[in-house]
């Protein structure tokens, strides 16, 4: 017979909740510029500038993403996306804190309604990685975010407008929420009969592929809403074997998979970089969707690529790839009723 003490120990051990691997990884991201430079064998002379810029917008990057960077190479295309630089502290004409007019398009806290038929929920302010070009790097998440349990005002707004067919979960990164929170969000949304689709904008499958576990796949396959997952990758080097496996699992799980990139100087502003990215995405089950001109957010001017150069790149890319692998080059303008094409190209 099992003793009372042993039974108590068994009960306690089985009641302890298992922490998914992705949450453990997320809890141990690198946030110290000195540690980042040390890990990548970079010149310590970069540290004062990195610390100054990180005070404006903190450094945050998972270990697995760092592992894809080339040690000693300050121009590594993945490093350039996350390394704080002194230039971020400089004011640049035409660059603003809210470059795409998010705050003016927010009828209730945490809900953006810019385009017909769809709304966007700021589900969280948390991200696994802080991209230095992020257009929401100055966003006031504290006061302009849907409440922890998805505010009644946002739900009432969606329910009252029968033209809304799609709800987009954004942030931050909605997949930084745990599965219980995601289930709660979806259960509240899917009772609104006119909503047909749930779109998830996320970078986690790329920077933290461990997030794509069985629990997430089960969540994506549950409920009545059609799921679209829009990932964010800017360079082919981001898609290693683990990321490709995660993306293939998402695709096989039934989600429609699209990618949106940002055209970034020194990262992917070449035909070869864009071609390689499209090929790597398609091999992993993802269709290129948008290539964004940089949103002119304060602190990101050094990433800007002119519309003229972008147009030339896309024309050359059209000559190298079938049309379904050429993303649409667009710019988001505050107050516009849709993304604005920079160049219109015919599918081949």
Features:
alpha/beta; 9-stranded mixed beta sheet; 13 helices; 2 domains; 348 residues
Structure, explained:
This protein starts with a helix and ends in a 7-residue tail after the last strand. It is built from 13 helices and nine strands. A hairpin with a 5-residue loop joins strand 1 and strand 2 (118-122). A nine-stranded mixed beta sheet has the order 1-2-3-4-5-6-7-8-9. Helix 12 (271-283) crosses helix 13. It is globular and about 55 Å long. It has helices at residues 4-15, 21-26, 33-39, 47-56, 63-66, 79-82, 152-160, 179-190, 204-207, 214-221, 241-252, 271-283, 307-320, and strands spanning 111-112, 118-122, 166-170, 197-202, 226-231, 256-262, 287-292, 328-331, 340-341. The protein folds into two domains: 20-89, no CATH class; 103-341, Alpha-Beta Barrel (TIM Barrel), CATH 3.20.20.70. It has 348 residues and is of the alpha/beta class.
Secondary-structure topology with pairs:
Elements: H1 4-15, H2 21-26, H3 33-39, H4 47-56, H5 63-66, H6 79-82, E1 111-112, E2 118-122, H7 152-160, E3 166-170, H8 179-190, E4 197-202, H9 204-207, H10 214-221, E5 226-231, H11 241-252, E6 256-262, H12 271-283, E7 287-292, H13 307-320, E8 328-331, E9 340-341
Helix pairs in contact: 12-13
In short:
It is globular and about 55 Å long. 33% of the residues lie in helices and 12% in strands. The protein is an alpha/beta fold.
